[in-house]
Design brief:
Blueprint lengths: L3 H13 L31 H17 L2 E3 L18 E9 L8 E8 L2 E8 L5 E5 L11 H17 L3 E4 L17 E6 L2 E6 L5 H10 L10 E4 L6
Antiparallel strand pairs: 1-2, 2-3, 3-4, 4-5, 6-7, 6-9, 7-8
Helix pairs in contact: 1-2, 2-3
């Protein structure tokens, strides 16, 4: 079995061929200024995320038989502050492993007014558990290294088989679209830790540990749990 460190080195080598943009954390050693909120100085440099995805897909396809299927329904999500939805274009793919029981990811690459966003969910589940970046304005810019770390963490976690996604009951509002209804909470565990969104669930780390070990996580009814085998062999 190839180790994840070997895979990461292969991804780094493939990524180095793309001449991707790179920039430091603009807020290192200083506070965010009010003028940076809502300002987008160089949105096109966020294409670094799509190039990193390309490097991952090349390595995983060549070495582990991961298929990247483009024949999947596209998402229409866009950040809430986008005034004109026609400025948003998206390409959605499904990343599937030939290994039995492995999770399949749905990966959407969006262009919003020239800026790249990556949205990730479990294939066949309408809820997306990661959006990178969550905001692309200058105030929220963490630098390219942090953005790539966020993306690498999710892909590597799926490859290793420790990705765990717990989705709380969906909204029951009568006007809610059942295919896009927001969950009451979302817990995501990766190899580097966990995060949650929505209502504060009790002991997210313990819930993730229980799911991974096969124990009862003591969740409310109508929760959805995604956890499967890895892609590496």
């Amino acid at each position: 079995m190839r180790t994840i460190d070997e895979v990461r080195r292969a991804v780094d080598a493939a990524f180095a061929e793309f001449d991707a943009p790179s920039w430091p954390d603009p807020h290192q050693g200083r506070r965010v200024t009010e003028a940076e909120y809502g300002r987008f100085t160089d949105p096109e440099r966020y294409r670094v995320l799509s190039l990193r995805l390309k490097a991952w897909s090349q390595v995983l396809s060549d070495q582990f038989g991961i298929t990247v299927d483009h024949d999947v329904p596209q998402h229409t999500w866009a950040p809430a502050d986008v005034d004109d939805p026609t400025t948003v274009s998206a390409t959605t793919t499904a990343w599937r492993s030939p290994r039995p029981g492995a999770l399949a990811l749905r990966v959407t690459t969006m262009d919003v007014d020239g800026q790249t966003f990556i949205e990730i969910g479990i294939d066949a589940d309408p809820v997306d558990f990661a959006i990178i970046p969550e905001c692309g304005c200058d105030a929220c810019d963490p630098g390219s290294a942090d953005l790539l770390t966020q993306l690498d963490d999710v892909i590597a976690s799926a490859a290793l088989g420790d990705l765990t996604v717990v989705i709380g009951p969906r909204s029951t509002h009568p006007d809610a679209d059942p295919d896009r209804a927001d969950p009451t909470f979302l817990i995501v565990g990766t190899g580097s830790g966990w995060f949650f969104d929505g209502d504060d669930p009790a002991e997210p780390a313990e819930i993730i540990d229980a799911v991974r070990s096969g124990d009862d996580p003591h969740l409310p009814e109508d929760c959805t749990i995604h956890h499967g085998g890895g892609w590496l062999s």
